[in-house]
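Session log. Operator J.P. requested a structure for one protein chain; no other inputs attached. Running the standard single-chain path with token output.
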Amino acid sequence: MATLLGQTMSFALPYKISVLVFIENLAGEQLLMLRAKQPNLGVWTPIGGKLEMATGESPLQCAVRETAEETGLVVREEDMHLFAMIAEKAYQGETHWLMFLFRCKTPIERLPPDIKEGRFAFWSREAIKGLAIPETDQAALWPIFDKYREGFVSLRADCSVSPIKITIEQIVGGR
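Structure written below.
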């Protein structure tokens, strides 16, 4: 809300839909990208991207496409497991995000080459705790991955407050 000439104005933030894909190597380390572009410039995140909404692309199709484009790993739809859906409100004060989180069941054999979006590295789950990662990843993504990667969870994250408020909406399975 903002005030202009004594009137209260509200500004709608754009809503974007994206996927994140969690990929492991044969040693069980996570593949992360050090982002060279916004959002998340300068921090480590799983690979992913926005849905091609003009073509009617589904989140699963997007996960398969982004995996191939960003890592060169060619997978089938059945190689992906949707384990979480997160609605982020007012991320960085700029955008609402609806994110679908997938775990790739096919390990990647080697580190992909750098791309314009960033560079890659493998990290143990323990080492990720000490990396520069987005606040929402620290508060929600990685704990969700640890607990629900074999099941499914839906949640919302209110990024307009600090600390971020996480609300679990639905859980199916998990650890």
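Operator note: DSSP finds three helices and eleven strands in the chain.
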